[in-house]
# Entry
Amino acid sequence: MNTSIALDGKIALVTGASQGIGAQVARTFHVAGAHIVLNHPGIGTTAADAQRIADELNALRSGSADVIAADVADAEQVQAMMREVKALRGGLDFLINNAAIIKDRTIAKMGLDEWDAVIGVNLSGVFHCCKFALEIMRDHGAIVSFGSIAAIQGFFGQANYASAKAGVQAMMRVLSREAARKNIRANAIAPGVIETSMAATIPENVRAEMMKNIPLGRFGTTQEVANVVLFLCSPLASYVTGQTIEINGGWRG
# Structure
C-alpha cells in the first residue's frame, strides 16, 4: 500500500492564488508534482504577485506553472479561463476554489453593493468555476472549495460572507452527487482563523478572545490548510466526497 502523494502529470487550477492560502496550496501541489495554473483577478498587485509565484515554481521545474487573469465573479471571464487551460494543458484534474473577498458590516448598515460583491466572488464565483471546469475536467478529478468557520459560527458583521460560505458548502454536497458519474469528487473545507496578512490585522484583544475557543491554543497555518486540500485531491481520499472538513484547531465556541 502506497501512502505517498504523487500528482505527476496532473493539472491543478487554484483561484485567488496570488497570496496567502491560495499561494501555499499552489506551492504544495507543485511539490507533489502537479502542474499549477495560478488564477488572479487582475486588480492591485495580484498580477505581479501571481507571476512571482509562477516564476518561483518554474525555476524549480521548468514549464510547470501558468498564470491566468480572471475575475471569478464574471462568468464570461471564467469560461474564457477554462478554455485557456484546455488549450494550454489539454484539460484539468483539480479545481481549488480559494478566491474570496470580505466586506464586513452589520446587516442594518451593509450596503447592497457590499452584499452583491461578496456573494458575487465567494458564492457565484465558485459556481462559475465549477460549471465551466466540468467542461474540461478529466474523469477521476477532484474539486475542493473553501467554506469557512464563519458559515458555522455566524460571526458578527459577516452576513454576506457567512451566507456565501454556507452556500459553498451546500453546493459541494450537491456537486458530489452530480459529478459522481465521472468519478469527480467534490468537497469543501472550513478553515478557522489562519495566520495570514488578513489575520494579522485582528486586534490583540480580539485574538485573545478567539484563542479561548481553540483547544489547540493557536491559529492555523497556511501549510496546514494546504495539506488538507492536497489530501482531498489525492488517491488517499478516493472515497471522500460531499463533505465539509473543518480545519480549526477544535474551535467549538
